[in-house]
Amino acid sequence: MRLLEGIAFMRSHRDSSIIAVALNNYTILVIDLDTKGIIRKFEGHSAKLNDLTFSPDSRWIISASMDATIKVWDLPSSYMIDQFRVEKPCVSITMSPTGDFLATAHVGYLGIYLWANRTLFNRVPLHSTNPRFGAPLVEDPSNLGIETTKVDKAVNAHDLISNQEENLEQIDFVYLTPQQLSKNTISVSNLPALKWQNLFDLDIIKRHNRPKCPPNVIKLAPFFIPTLSGLEMEYDVSTDKRSVGRRS
Hints:
Blueprint: E1 7-12, E2 18-23, E3 27-32, E4 37-43, E5 49-54, E6 60-65, E7 69-74, E8 79-85, E9 90-95, E10 101-106, E11 113-116, H1 150-153, H2 157-170, H3 193-196, H4 202-209, E12 227-228, E13 234-235
Antiparallel strand pairs: 1-2, 2-3, 3-4, 5-6, 6-7, 7-8, 9-10, 10-11, 12-13
């Protein structure tokens, strides 16, 4: 197969026969290796593509570019369903095997950032979005309550401490978790999502697993067969069948 533009890099999905090709003109091509044809073409990035990855079910392609945007492309519908912009461009991206988290690495940052998949917690409408529209800015995830920036360093230390004390007085840290938030919710433990996601379709599963006909009851066999008295063991087959299994 000959392409009109140069290839920057390629990514493949292990469980399917498709590959994603990033071109030098910021376009993403999805190629089927069995038919050797282009099945999808995604355009929307305005700078060099740094990395892209498949979702575990090969339904999404998530791409990162030097324009500091991360876009989610839906393969069945061939639409872009989500995008967001970060402070620093993402240079490497991958998704967890269960699809729960997205891991990214950014320019000038030594850490790895994790993003939660919102579709696992609530119903998210996956409508098509124009890739040319501006993406909303999302702050990088952090495990710190207060992040130190260059502006914060210029603030007087005494004023910063006093402001923190005032904020601590206004916040009530005592919170008692109720046993059940609502009657319409399900309380779960630390089990993975695959263990409890099928609870929403429990009625459908029970209806599909319902037997078509009632089970057949196995007839009970007699617990002993009468024998004839003698030196050799012989069974008494002349006994009435109705008396078989009764103790005298």
